[in-house]
Amino acid sequence: MSAQRFTALDVFRGMTVFFMIIVNNQAGPAFAPLRHAAWDGFTPTDLVFPSFLFAVGNAMAFTKPKWAGKSNSSVLAKILKRTFLIFLIGYLLSWFPFCYRDWE
């Protein structure tokens, strides 16, 4: 059984992650649309996190039927394994010597 990919969801998720990187790694003064808005209003930056949550929820809706026939322990094991790997990759990337960022 091959995994079916949803191209539109993959593209949307990729654009969202790309925009997260752009917003969080600005050099020098921030371009106005890439700053968070004041209390009232919003900018494109303020749409990044809701867009990511939309993509995650959409992906969960597509994968739920795949998990329906499996036992709770196998699903939990897969979730914990993926969680551990994501945290491990993030931790190792924080040690990457060329990505040091001086937090003001």
Structural notes for this entry:
- It is a single chain.
- The chain has helices at 7-24, 48-67, 72-94.
- The protein is extended and about 50 Å long.
- The longest helix is centred in the C-terminal third of the chain and has 23 residues, at 72-94.
- The chain is mostly helical and 104 residues long.
- It has 3 helices and no strands.
- The protein is 59% helix and 0% strand.
List keywords for this structure.
104 residues, mainly alpha, 3 helices
Return Rg in Å. Answer: 18 Å
Count the DSSP helices.
Answer: 3
Helix/strand/pairing category:
mainly alpha
Care to count the β-strands? 0
Mean pLDDT: 82
Task: Provide the fold topology.
Elements: H1 7-24, H2 48-67, H3 72-94
Short description:
59% of the residues lie in helices and 0% in strands. The chain has 104 residues and is mostly helical. Helix 1 packs antiparallel against helix 2 (48-67).
